[in-house]
Amino acid sequence: MANRAFISEVYGNSPYGRLSTGTPKTINTIKQQDLVNFHHERYVPSNSILAVAGDITYDEVAALVDKHMGNWKEGHVKARGAIKSEKYLTKKNVTLIDRDITQANIILGGVGIKRDNPDYYTISVMNYILGGGGFASRMVKTIRDDLGLDYDVHSHFLAYKYGRDFRVTTQTKNEFAKTSIAEILKQIKIMKETLVKDEELSDAKSYLTGSFPRRLDTTDKVVTFMAQTEFYGLGLDYDKRYIDYINGITKEAVKRVALKYLNDTNYQLVIVGSKSKINAAQDVK
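The structure assignment produced for this chain is given below.
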């Protein structure tokens, strides 16, 4: 419920602002001919990626493709409608959904970066330190370990091909919602204003580079990686360049992207919880 409200506010009428699973209302309007038309317009060779990994040669793959898909008509992909830009927040926007539950579910964030942004790798390091590194992140150390407010808190940069967002997600007792939100904003502000420590930077790089091979340790992962690399236009040598990208990041670069992409004043805040028990509700009109 919180996610549905968040993406609606951040992405507006963009397709990213709607659940991919649809709703009972939208699903019930789909007719058989809609499915036929969509398949005809989208499922064509020029709109497809074929990735293969395993004990097989290129010539063998080519022969199989020719045998089983040789009659696949080229077709013309229907032009995709322009995806409108996300909402750029110019002020703080709070959405409180009142539910009689014991924990408040919180999402705080806004617009992020698309996958082709050159700052993607620096942001990955910055976000690992801020809230994406699990127990090693600042948010977990302060909000969970030191203050004991939440069991889990994470920050994410969801970088898609046509859209993007940044979000911090957590759950806490309704009575602690305001304190948790304040600490999240505090950690964002600190990340923007000060350089990260040498140890933090080193640990982030070590994890991101050290865990990278695990994305390629099975043929299933390899073929998925290849398809995604092609989809995002990262280049066939991306698996070799990634390590250099991460290792080349400096503390100054981390602070630069924090200043550019993190926002502790103009943001979207969604809270699903008991309105009567959430102190932060006093800020909600």
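Interim note for the steering committee: The chain is about 45% helix and 15% strand. The mean pLDDT is 92.
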